[in-house]
Amino acid sequence: MTRLAVLHPSFSDQAHPAGPDGDESLLRTLHDYLESLQILDRLHRLMLDLVKDEFERLGQGDLTPVQALLIYNLGDAEVTAGELRSRGMYQGSNVSYNLKKLVQMGYVHHQRSETDRRSVRVRLTPRGEAVRETVGTLFARHAVGLHASGVLDDPALRLVNQQWRRVERFWSEQIRYIY
């Protein structure tokens, strides 16, 4: 059971988001929104499981799925941990911890900036590039299977992604509004 599996609308008449008149459209939106959150949570966990299974199948059990995805998202760039946080939406302590582990395991190279000694730039080593290729191949294999199955045809994944970008902007605006 995921963290969000317990989400469900349970409001008293006074706290009911639809008000005392009961706007069914708003209730439906709430239900659909909560269901979407549950699906997103499950999809993320399943993706991590797929990455974990792939590396176990290949006999590379030293990486966590989060570390493998961090390597994949790092790509061929040379960036700071802060840039990784902003690009990959990783939490600060998680990025720092995982980068330290990846450096120790030889997947990532790090070097202090010449101009700002507090800043550390990271890039993949050849070993990290091999991991990136493995994850990329896994995702490509999934894309081929999804394309062949027609699962993503209705609605087109492009339209679904467009909708999620709108939700992302809405959430971002809510965060800015709080501060």
Automatic annotation (TrEMBL):
* Keyword Cell cycle belongs to the record: no
Q: Which domain of life is it from?
A: Bacteria
Q: Could you confirm whether the keyword Transcription appears in this record? A: yes
Note the Gene3D superfamilies from the entry: Winged helix-like DNA-binding domain superfamily/Winged helix DNA-binding domain
What keywords appear on the UniProt entry?
DNA-binding, Transcription, Transcription regulation
What are the BP-aspect GO terms?
A: response to stress
Q: What is this protein called?
A: MarR family transcriptional regulator
- Supply the source organism for this entry: Paracoccus contaminans
